[in-house]
Design brief:
By secondary structure, this protein is of the alpha+beta class. It contains 4 helices and 8 strands; from the N terminus they run βαβββαβββααβ.
């Protein structure tokens, strides 16, 4: 796929529930900042959240960052997966298993992409407070390209997910 723009604005969700979660975030953001033609332009607040799917694990620390990059979506995905592995993420056969680091592309400008390796917007973003709350911290009027609603309007509709602002900032 060849895209026409030179620079893209991308929202990335970050989660961790193993080890020093705060350090995992710092290390991940540092590695993302060091990617070629990529710049972190905003960071959300940090949030502590209960696991949604597999409840038999420790709580998560979550945030989001907004980056500007010249990478195309699949190239960025490969780089984020490499960072996850470098920082200790081990693939598990258990769905929604605990993890040192989870880096998900949520929005890539207003693009809509669906292929074998990547789906943007993230297919579950609109159901997850731990994804939308941090994005609202940065850009509350961002419009979900499939739902055509502001992310903060979608967030208000999500019920029953505990999300608390964490005591430390990035």
């Amino acid at each position: 796929m060849t895209l026409k723009l030179n620079k893209y604005n991308v929202f990335i969700s970050i989660g961790s529930n193993i080890g020093d979660r705060f350090k995992n975030f710092q290390d991940a953001i540092c590695k993302i900042e060091n990617l070629e033609n990529t710049k972190v332009i905003q960071k959300s607040n940090l949030y502590e959240t209960e696991p949604l799917e597999n409840k038999n694990q420790d709580s998560f620390l979550n945030c989001a960052i907004k980056i500007e990059t010249k990478m195309e979506p699949n190239e960025l995905l490969l780089n984020l997966q490499k960072i996850e592995r470098l920082l200790g993420r081990v693939k598990s056969n258990i769905r929604y298993a605990p993890r040192t680091l989870d880096l998900d592309i949520i929005f890539f400008d207003n693009l809509i992409i669906k292929n074998k390796k990547l789906e943007i917007p993230h297919p579950k973003a609109h159901k997850r407070a731990f994804v939308l709350r941090p994005i609202c911290d940065m850009e509350k009027n961002f419009v979900h390209p499939l739902l055509n609603k502001k992310v903060c309007e979608i967030l208000i509709q999500i019920k029953g997910q505990k999300i608390e602002k964490w005591h430390q900032d990035l």
